[in-house]
Amino acid sequence: MALAQRLSASPFWTILVLSLALFLSGNWVLPLMDRDEPRFAEASREMLARGDLVTPWFNAEFRFDKPPLIYWCQMACYRLLGENAFAARLPSALFATATAVLLLFWGRRMGNERAGLYAALMLSTCLQFLIHGRLAVADMPMVFFVSVAFWSGWEMTRPEPKPEPKWFWVFYLSLGLGFLAKGPVAWLPLAGLMLARWFHPGDFQLPVFKTVCGLVVALFVVGVWGVPALLETRGQFFTVGIGHHVVFRSFGIMEGHGGPGWLGWIVTLPLYLITFFVSFFPWAFKVPFAVSTWWHGRRQDLFGSYLLLQAAVVFAVFTLVRTKLPHYTLPAFPAISLWLAMRMTCTPDYSPWIRRGVISMCVLSAGVTLLLFRAARPYFVAATLWRQAGPFCSRDMELAAVGFNEPSLVWEFRRGVTNYLEQLTIEQAGTFLAKPSPHVLILPTRDVSAELRGMATNALMFEAAGLDTARFRRIDLTAIVKPAAK
């Protein structure tokens, strides 16, 4: 009863409880999905085992894809909750919830708490946030700090009244922490501020000297981790992390995420204008009409112009980048949510529409997490195979795989096996099985020949069929386990 009274009386409690319920529900049911979730989760586990807070590792090799903030958060969750899928996903759920709460307080700061409440509701229940708010990846920490930068950047640049000094520190610290979450993309709010200063020179205060000093603060935050990382990896973290995962991602196509050739790049330029209506579903369908009615009075709405400009910078940058994935535009969604909520509070009879949308998305989310997740669980083949073979595995076993190299195998089997996963060819499988030491060999069931079965006479065999979630194709795997002699 007390909780119900608080929820009805306090927008803060409404957003906090609803967001946590949405982003946490079912996270313990579904195994980590290839490829990104197991990579992040396993890298955090290996950093924890090594006692290394600087350099991420995956399967005993450097992992330069992302800076360390998400790994630090997952390591802390492992300490509290153990090394499991729920703990790996918990940081994303907490940062997604924090972003929604931030919108509530930002709306209140702007004198429109109702707009803040509806912005938080829209953000928490849009489709892409419901997905990424529960994934063990780096996006939600980055989105949170970008949102902090959006807010503090607005406050920091007000000519009148004179901004409080704290906003300077909040803005540039959020840039630094955002970089530690997902790299240079977190600095897009600074580009948005510069454009706002250019379009509205009298309305935005952005002195050059203070900006340079602020960048020094942000770089110092990055450098506290970055300098040791560069020294430890002899510069490879910069070469691969920035050179490959930022520069090449901008001008090349990674893992097939983009159109081939320059013609493919041109064809995919309007991609995010299309995916927006799916990613920001169901709220996106109100945006075109809201923009059309707002446009003629845009000069009288400086705050609305600022929000849309920050969102437009995100869309413009990722439209030009050749590697494309629908969630790349997530950093724009908090600004769009608050802008749309501000517009809705100026529109009569907006409350029932928002209420219906929130209830519909909550019901959809509950149906997916409580029903579909349980139905899909058996199709995660690596997790299913581990549940069968795990009781017969020991920590010192050798671990190898043939023909299936998805990260989920590493994540699942290194729950109880301390050795790293070795990739073999089918020709090497026989030699591996002939070893007298305890071992586990995982390979497609179709490749388990009569000869290999004959060599595994003293071993246990387990089979699992399911879905390769990285390639969305059926896969049948067999684990051949030779336990340690008793």
Number of helices in the DSSP assignment:
22
Question: What value does the average pLDDT take?
Answer: 91
- Major beta sheet summary: 5 strands, mixed
What sequence of helices (H) and strands (E) makes up the elements? HHHEEHHHHHHHHHHHHHHHHEHEHEHEE
Q: What is the CA-CA span between the terminal residues?
A: 57 Å
* Coarse structural class: alpha/beta
**Helix residue percentage:** 55-70%
Give start-end ranges of low-pLDDT stretches.
Answer: 244-254
List the helices and strands and how they pair.
Elements: H1 2-9, H2 11-24, H3 36-50, E1 57-58, E2 61-62, H4 69-81, H5 85-109, H6 113-125, H7 127-132, H8 139-156, H9 165-182, H10 188-199, H11 208-232, H12 236-251, H13 261-267, H14 271-279, H15 287-295, H16 302-320, H17 333-344, H18 351-376, H19 381-389, E3 398-402, H20 407-413, E4 421-424, H21 426-433, E5 439-444, H22 450-455, E6 460-468, E7 473-482
Helix pairs in contact: 1-2, 2-5, 2-6, 3-4, 3-20, 4-5, 5-6, 5-8, 5-17, 6-17, 6-18, 8-9, 8-10, 9-11, 10-16, 16-17
Protein architecture, described:
The protein is an alpha/beta fold and 486 residues long. The chain contains 22 helices and seven strands. Strand 1 and strand 2 form a beta hairpin. It is elongated and about 80 Å long.
